[in-house]
Amino acid sequence: MALPPGHRFPMLKYARLAQVLEDEGLVGPEGLYTPEPASFDMLAAVHDPGYVRQVLDAAVPPEVERVIGLPVTREVSDRVQAAVGGTLMAARLALRHGLACNTAGGSHHAGPKGGAGFCVFNDIAVAGRAMIDAGEIRQALVVDLDVHQGDGTASIFEHEPRVFTFSMHGEKNYPVRRGPSDLDIDLPDGTGDDAYLAALRSVLPGLLDRVEPDLVFYLAGVDPHGEDRLGRLGLSDEGLSARDAYVLETCLPAAPVVGVIGGGYDDDIDRLARRHAILHRAAADAWRRGLARPAV
Q: Model's pTM, two decimal places?
């Protein structure tokens, strides 16, 4: 699916990521799972119903498209419904097997009123809401390590004590108006691997003890990378790999984990897709080491 020439959002990364995972042998013999698209009712449980209808009808007003940063064509509408369905499917697979990852997802800027920042629907929020309402989980923890604050997720769950939202991000980056996360950590420009990992290690174990989640939603954005076009931090590929391994090693003994890829912006789609695949490599390693355990 193509966007207008020169558009900043790297839409082609999703298809390339799936191919990278195939090439690296990270897809099992059964292949990739295909989700059911998210339904209107599911989406309208966290987003304004009128906005949801506009997206599903590919009839989003131009002023709303400008806030989103994307033209909401029929192809975009279909893709975002599938991405949300993918996160919900991965979350349910994580409960069953202990660990699962989407090849998309992490649209954390979409809030109660609508989309923003290249995010049309908030897949983590939709999946979390649906699973809580269905009684599949009682408590969720969102670990959002995208370089941008997860304002939409925070706003959706502001008054929901059964979802704890944690975001660690660049302090001088988008969005200007922050959402009401349960815990935010702002990092200065240029924060590198060691300082980043030290900040994460200082809070994550205590959060797991405090929240006692039934499921962890892990948003593994790669835009903290030092070469990312829209990030201002200084992580390396090795730093991202150490981050993802640490999150899984720390969270999996406490609860199943569902991973989504989040943000990443690079003109070289192959390089970007391989960077996003760091999450799936870490998950495969955790799986081989027997760290994943189904929900009790």
A: 0.96
